[in-house]
Amino acid sequence: MALRDVKPTRSELISLKRRIALSERGYKLLKMKRDGLILEFFKILGQAKNTRSELDTRYEKAVERMAVANTIEGAIGVKSAAFSVNEVPNIELTSKNIMGVVVPEIKASKVKKGIMDRGYGVLGTTSIIDDTASSFEDLVDAIIKSAEIETTMKKLLEEIESTKRRVNALEYKVIPELTEARDFIKMRLDEMEREELFRLKKIKARTSV
Amino acid sequence: MTEVRSGLAPYIYVCTRMRVRKAKLLPKEEYLRMLQMTLPEITRFIEETEYKKEIDENAQFFEGIDLFEIGLSWNLAKEYQKILEITPGSLKQFTKAYLRRWDIQNVLNILRGKLQGMKAGKIKEVLIPAGGLDRLMLDRLISEDSPERVIEALKKTRMYPVLQKEFQGAIEKGSFSKVENELYKSMYAEILSDAEGGIKGGNDFISFLRLDIDIINIKNLFRIRADGFEEDVRDMMIPGGSFTPDELQTLNSLPTHDEFIDTLRGKLNRHPILEAQEQLRNIHSIREAESELTRIQLSEMERMSKMHPFSIHPILVYLEKKKYEVFNLRALARGKESGLSPERIREFLVI
């Protein structure tokens, strides 16, 4: 807000004071929101670290099991068992609200299956196929959990970033400019009052002479 | 199954040929040497053996380790077909019966592939024509439009009644696990009933079948117990072995591993599995139990083939050992490709 555009009137001063009060209240609230979001973010960060390391462990285990399955059963045996899988996991996507941030909530069913539900029979396969299938089911489970937590984290980060920008804008731009405008109007009004007083004194002096 | 009487000479001839072929299989020392080789060295070594022909034949369709594996599997299939050609009379019938499991595997792969809408080439990659259904028949089945037509094309086979009965349920459930189990169960039931029908050498084949059934059932009990499946397991067990399905169900419901091993021991009388009781008690993984049971089965088959030198046993021992030679070579190549240590690969070799 350029000072030359400011009209030095009382009504403008009142309006500016109101805007300053509103901005300061908004600034405080946004600062609290930012701090709250940062706290939430650190909570989620801890979970995200755990789920990511769990995901890495499960991925390594699944890859290792696949290598062993290929070694024991051959790619033909593994592909043949994979042909039996007909059912894909059900993913249900809902949302929840963390301090105004809408984050996803992912619920999955039919990820972990029992020996009889995987589509292959026990009489034509060996236990390494069970182990490999189970490892990959665990991996899918970890991916789903990780997806929920990491998306939440990403959304929180975006919100923290935008809140931080708003807080900074209020702190370093909006409030100082409004305060400057208020001070300018105050100064101009005082100036005008003094001029008026001086003019009155001059008039009084002339009339008394 | 009809009996073919042609005297003892062809039996002696074929059993001797099997012994010669068995002697040509790679010895344990070769595997130990190969464990220390790199993948290119293993490939070169295999290229100098009888597997070269099949690897070269498939070189235009596959590459890398896939080519290696397909070559090994096709060699196994060809070898089995050759054995079928040279075995006489009832031995041929028993050998054919033994190879029926490959037909089940191939038919199930075709049905599952068709149901998933896979291309013919992809389905063909997982077929090993080592059973009674030859390449031409398998190609015909792949070219059928739908799973229903595949089943219709199998009308003249012994799999047809089970497929016809169970297929609709499998489609509704979206799972072929029951069909697979039922096919294997009916295969064993039919083979047992054929062998018990008074065919010459039938008793020898029955003794192999009983051992095979026991080993499969016990392996699966280990697997099912590890999975924590507490429901009725009778449907997943093959009748005809040392245990009835009810006894196997009781074994599965035992709470601890020690109780399971003790009850198993109590029920087995002079059974080869008894030799490995303590190893089975102290196993750390199901894989270890499976390996131990496979080792027991092979050594028992070897013992039976020595006790009955001119029976089905020498043929079965050769077929099994040939299968494990292919599995071992594949394990070496795949293990090396995956970067597994020689010690780890050694655990997966049947030597």
Question: Can you summarize this structure?
Answer:
The complex is a heterodimer of chains A (209) and B (351). Chain A has 209 residues and is mainly alpha-helical. In chain A, 75% of the residues lie in helices and 9% in strands.
Compile the SSE list and pairings.
The complex is a heterodimer of chains A (209) and B (351).
Chain A: H1 10-83, E1 90-98, E2 101-109, H2 127-208
Antiparallel strand pairs in A: 1-2
Helix pairs in contact in A: 1-2
Chain B: H1 9-24, H2 28-35, H3 39-47, H4 52-57, H5 64-86, H6 89-98, H7 100-115, H8 120-125, H9 135-143, H10 147-153, H11 160-173, H12 177-195, H13 202-227, H14 245-252, H15 257-267, H16 277-281, H17 286-307, H18 313-337, H19 342-348
Helix pairs in contact in B: 1-18, 3-18, 5-18, 7-12, 11-12, 12-13, 13-17, 17-18, 18-19
Silhouette of chain B? globular
The helix content of chain A is over 70%
Q: How many separate structural domains of chain A?
A: 1
Radius of gyration of chain B: 21 Å
User: N-to-C SSE series of chain B?
Assistant: HHHHHHHHHHHHHHHHHHH
- The helix-and-strand class of chain A reads mainly alpha
Q: What gap, in angstroms, lies between the N and C termini of chain B? A: 35 Å
Average pLDDT for all residues of chain B: 88
